[in-house]
Amino acid sequence: MNNEQGPVAVITGAASGIGRGLAEHAAVQGLRLVLADRDAASLHALCDELKASGVQAVACVTDVGDVKQVERLRDQAVEQFGGVDLLFNNAGVMQTGFSWDITEAQWQRMLNVNLNGVINGIRSFVPLLLRQGRPAHVINTASLAGLVSSPLMAPYNVTKQAVVALSETLHYELAMIGAPVSVSVLCPGPVASEIMASNQVVDTAGADFSQLLDSTIRQGMTPAELASQVFAAIAEKRFWILPHKGFKPALERRVQSILGETNPQFQMADVEDNAHAAR
Question: Considering its fold, how many domains does the chain have in total?
Fold first, then answer.
């Protein structure tokens, strides 16, 4: 990040929650910002607020599930600032309920935003980062749900675990070719946000679990605190960003079950911990 005019960060899902926290922290650090979100009103309000404080920022309304829109986001970043140094593939939505009751459209929505959004970000931006020939960093937002699974969160578990796998693969590939591009995967627990507003309740169990998630998330880590940890990890070029340490016993049990080839057993304590997996 040696751009003389200040590094450039592209942040998807920037209008609220973790994305907004990342944008505000990046602004304080003197980065130039390309902010993306589907919520046009909230996105432009944030961009105007940051610009009023002297930050160089541009807003680009983007549906990350549409590769053409992500390519437009990349082109706008290049046109506005000449390149990109940090790419935050952060946009995400939530869906709860029994896996067999969740509709095809709801499954597809989760795949489009949570997984295809990251795939589109990588395919659109990594060739640019490689052509630039300077240090850059890709940060993909997964979740604790990317490492341990909970019932009633199938689409979220599936998409976030795929993001972890994709991030590891990208890390290996960039190292294999000696590229100056680093990768991190962010796996947070509860962070205060409005992600549950995107949930489409499909059954009574999903409704009850949704209420638990919403309450837990609203009482979670502040986006500002999370952003501080994320940028510290970026400075250290750390792949794993795990802001919430309390989930590790559940992860250890899962790994032991895999190695011992025993059937997974979900514990009630995990319900409280893993319900925290939403961004």
Answer: 1
